[in-house]
Amino acid sequence: MQKFLQEKKGEMLELLEQLVNIDSGSYVKEGVDRVGTILKEKYEELGFVVEVKKEEEYGNNLVIQHRDAKDPKIILVAHMDTVFPEGTVAERPFRIEGTRAYGPGVVDMKASQVELLYAMKTLVEFGLTGYENVQIVLNSDEEIGSITSRPLIEKHAKGKRYALVVEPARKDGSLVTARRGGGTYTLIVKGKSAHSGIEPENGRSAIEELAYKIIQLHHLSDHERGISVNVGLIEGGTAVNIVSPNAVAHIDIRISELEQMEYLEQRIKEICATTEVPGTEIELEGDISRPPMVNNEKTQALLSVVREVGKEIGIEVHDTSTGGGGDASFTSARGVPTIDGLGPVGGNVHSEEEYLEIDTLPERTLLLVKTIERLSKRTR
Known about the structure:
By secondary structure, this protein is an alpha/beta fold.
């Protein structure tokens, strides 16, 4: 099997080049759908049935399972979108330099799409237990919070015994067993303009009110408990000599435990329910939309299986936590044991220097194959 995947490495890289050289940013529906169409055809060639969940604004989502599947117990999740805008491919298309491949979304996560497809190909080719026991969700909007695909992932996570998310492994090869949850808010303050030299007493400063709110919001942070409230962007005012009639703050929230969601939502609403500057008004928009992925006993039990498999094929499996959000949070919050970061190794994601360690593509595909096979035997 290892030899088979090594022999397929060139073929895998050809498909990777094809996928990378398609602009498929979250807002480039046509590009995301092109990626989905290519993958759909590849899966159908292997005997899988692909259900296209059409979307108007964003790319279509795909739900995939083998025609022999009856009640699959493993859900696999991988996103087709990237963070890069249309036109990026023309500026810096797929390329290989030494042992690394480069290009927009090469490791986050188009290489993972190749890995997942070839894991299924390997299972089918060798007649191994597993290909009939998986349900795959390929989603189109993970990079912008899985707006359309979250309900789909949560729906298909129901009744599953295991969830495997094929985000890229960390630079050191570690898998991901915990992710912080979070969300965003927009705080809009309306005041009253007045000339700051002629009649400042008639003005009501939206910026002053916003300043009070920023301090109060930042005091909600508790880094020891994994809570972070950050006002990362502000706007306001019309001119330096005018009392500001408007101000806006954009707020990023990060949490580490599910119970923190309700607490923070309530406290933020309380802070924004009243004003310090008379005559100003406040509007609050947003929510904490992504739950955390928690490293619990179920996670550790699943990780031990992956470690056993890794040991058998010569990969020392380590795990880590990350502050970034991901689709693994949705399956984890539904009580499904979840491991993330099962894709190939790379780094510098979301940047011009994003790269894939090419040799890890067949290696991590084998790890995924063997893990699916092992877990499938456990669900019998």
